[in-house]
């Protein structure tokens, strides 16, 4: 097969991203540029992503991000073979900004357009970073998602289960807010948890006693709120050590739930006797060192290889979109000007 150079665009949440990925024949794909502009400072005062502000910022930053990706890679638009763009799921204003920009480029340059499911982008990342072979098991854990998938092909995934309410990242962010720690909550809770006693509080492990791979994290938030209030009532404030203990207890509960459900997902996955069994994690929460360490242990117990992409490719980025578009395009798929932006789009 020939060499393909794909420009990818991502704007489905609060990161505006453009990237260029190239693959020559069967060689490992190369990331020639990956530009990400976060919007944290725009939303921080509101305690969450404001869709209208996000959409405007994407519209303003997309062209600029494409230019930066070209400059970084040293390529010109004439060397791009196709434009890949996140067409959902996500905040519709942002997704629309990306799709419009991609359509403009595709029409202007007269090159193909490929719509990509954002979740497929995350789920295919281990193929970009580790040349993972199908089928592999994927745990996608972020601020918006939490699910186990078996990837059978670029557009073929089976879902084994996932959260029935909040995503773990949301729970980390909420925990940080309740404890007066900075956002995003994941890194700050993880840092505090290092000094805490995970056994000082016993937080629930929801759905752990139920069969299957479904998870629930909303009860954990409520339990944390109650435990915090109890500490505050006792001490008339939140002592540093008590805060660390709450973080450690909370994180331990999330780790236990993810580890046990991963064990079950592995059993389902291994029943099909994959030749090179692999568990990959992706999504912002995959940055958590305690979660990574436990999942590594679970995998070792099952003789399954564990991989976590580099942090910059775990969180939202356009390299994963360019790569997923590349796989779709190679398999003969392509979109046209009727490509629509989809707020919801299950894999
Ligand atoms: O994938 P991502 O960048 O955005 C989406 O949600 O799509 O993930 C962001 C989430 C946030 O909730 C953040 O708190 C969480 O990932 N996160 C972490 C860590 N780093 C980021 N959660 C736990 N531990 C971390 N070290
Ligand atoms: Zn994402």
UniProtKB/TrEMBL annotation:
<dbReference type="GO" id="GO:0002949">
    <property type="term" value="P:tRNA threonylcarbamoyladenosine modification"/>
</dbReference>
<dbReference type="InterPro" id="IPR000905">
    <property type="entry name" value="Gcp-like_dom"/>
</dbReference>
<protein>
    <recommendedName>
        <fullName>tRNA N6-adenosine threonylcarbamoyltransferase</fullName>
        <ecNumber>2.3.1.234</ecNumber>
    </recommendedName>
</protein>
<feature type="binding site">
    <location>
        <position position="118"/>
    </location>
    <ligand>
        <name>Fe cation</name>
    </ligand>
</feature>
<feature type="binding site">
    <location>
        <begin position="140"/>
        <end position="144"/>
    </location>
    <ligand>
        <name>substrate</name>
    </ligand>
</feature>
<feature type="binding site">
    <location>
        <position position="173"/>
    </location>
    <ligand>
        <name>substrate</name>
    </ligand>
</feature>
<keyword id="KW-0012">Acyltransferase</keyword>
<comment type="function">
    <text>Required for the formation of a threonylcarbamoyl group on adenosine at position 37 (t(6)A37) in tRNAs that read codons beginning with adenine. Is involved in the transfer of the threonylcarbamoyl moiety of threonylcarbamoyl-AMP (TC-AMP) to the N6 group of A37, together with TsaE and TsaB. TsaD likely plays a direct catalytic role in this reaction.</text>
</comment>
<keyword id="KW-0963">Cytoplasm</keyword>
<feature type="binding site">
    <location>
        <position position="288"/>
    </location>
    <ligand>
        <name>substrate</name>
    </ligand>
</feature>
<dbReference type="InterPro" id="IPR022450">
    <property type="entry name" value="TsaD"/>
</dbReference>
<dbReference type="GO" id="GO:0005506">
    <property type="term" value="F:iron ion binding"/>
</dbReference>
<dbReference type="InterPro" id="IPR017860">
    <property type="entry name" value="Peptidase_M22_CS"/>
</dbReference>
<dbReference type="GO" id="GO:0061711">
    <property type="term" value="F:tRNA N(6)-L-threonylcarbamoyladenine synthase activity"/>
</dbReference>
<keyword id="KW-0819">tRNA processing</keyword>
<feature type="binding site">
    <location>
        <position position="316"/>
    </location>
    <ligand>
        <name>Fe cation</name>
    </ligand>
</feature>
<keyword id="KW-0808">Transferase</keyword>
<comment type="similarity">
    <text>Belongs to the KAE1 / TsaD family.</text>
</comment>
<keyword id="KW-0408">Iron</keyword>
<dbReference type="InterPro" id="IPR043129">
    <property type="entry name" value="ATPase_NBD"/>
</dbReference>
<dbReference type="GO" id="GO:0005737">
    <property type="term" value="C:cytoplasm"/>
</dbReference>
<feature type="binding site">
    <location>
        <position position="122"/>
    </location>
    <ligand>
        <name>Fe cation</name>
    </ligand>
</feature>
<feature type="domain" description="Gcp-like">
    <location>
        <begin position="30"/>
        <end position="323"/>
    </location>
</feature>
<dbReference type="Pfam" id="PF00814">
    <property type="entry name" value="TsaD"/>
</dbReference>
<keyword id="KW-0479">Metal-binding</keyword>
<feature type="binding site">
    <location>
        <position position="186"/>
    </location>
    <ligand>
        <name>substrate</name>
    </ligand>
</feature>
<dbReference type="InterPro" id="IPR017861">
    <property type="entry name" value="KAE1/TsaD"/>
</dbReference>
């Amino acid at each position: 097969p020939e060499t393909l150079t794909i420009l990818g665009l991502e704007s489905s949440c609060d990161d505006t991203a453009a990237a260029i990925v190239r693959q020559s024949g069967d060689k490992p794909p190369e990331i020639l540029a990956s530009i990400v502009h976060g919007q944290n400072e725009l939303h921080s005062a509101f305690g969450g992503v404001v869709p209208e502000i996000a959409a405007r910022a994407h519209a303003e930053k997309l062209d600029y991000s494409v230019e930066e990706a070209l400059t970084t890679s040293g390529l010109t638009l004439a060397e791009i073979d196709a434009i890949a763009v996140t067409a959902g799921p996500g905040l519709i204003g942002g997704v629309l900004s990306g799709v419009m920009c991609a359509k403009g480029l595709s029409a202007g340059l007269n090159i193909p357009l490929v719509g990509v499911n954002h979740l497929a982008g995350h789920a295919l990342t281990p193929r970009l970073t580790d040349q993972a072979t199908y089928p592999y098991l994927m745990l996608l854990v972020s601020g918006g998602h939490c699910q186990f998938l078996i990837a059978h092909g670029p557009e073929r995934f089976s879902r084994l289960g996932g959260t029935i309410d909040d995503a773990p990242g949301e729970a980390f962010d909420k925990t940080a807010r309740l404890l007066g720690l900075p956002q995003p909550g994941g890194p700050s809770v993880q840092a505090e948890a290092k000094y805490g006693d995970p056994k000082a509080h016993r937080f629930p492990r929801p759905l752990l006693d139920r069969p299957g791979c479904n998870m629930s994290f909303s009860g954990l938030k409520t339990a944390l709120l109650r435990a915090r209030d109890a500490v505050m009532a006792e001490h008339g404030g939140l002592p540093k050590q008590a805060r660390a203990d709450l973080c450690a207890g909370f994180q331990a509960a999330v780790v236990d739930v993810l580890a046990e459900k991963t064990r079950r997902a592995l059993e389902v996955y291994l029943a099909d006797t994959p030749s090179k069994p692999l568990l990959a994690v992706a999504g912002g929460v995959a940055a958590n060192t305690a979660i990574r360490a436990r999942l590594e242990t679970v995998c070792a117990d099952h003789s399954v290889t564990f991989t976590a992409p580099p942090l910059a490719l775990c969180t939202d980025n356009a390299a994963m979109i360019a790569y997923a578009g590349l796989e779709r395009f190679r398999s003969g798929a392509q979109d046209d000007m009727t490509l629509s932006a989809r707020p919801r789009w299950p894999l």
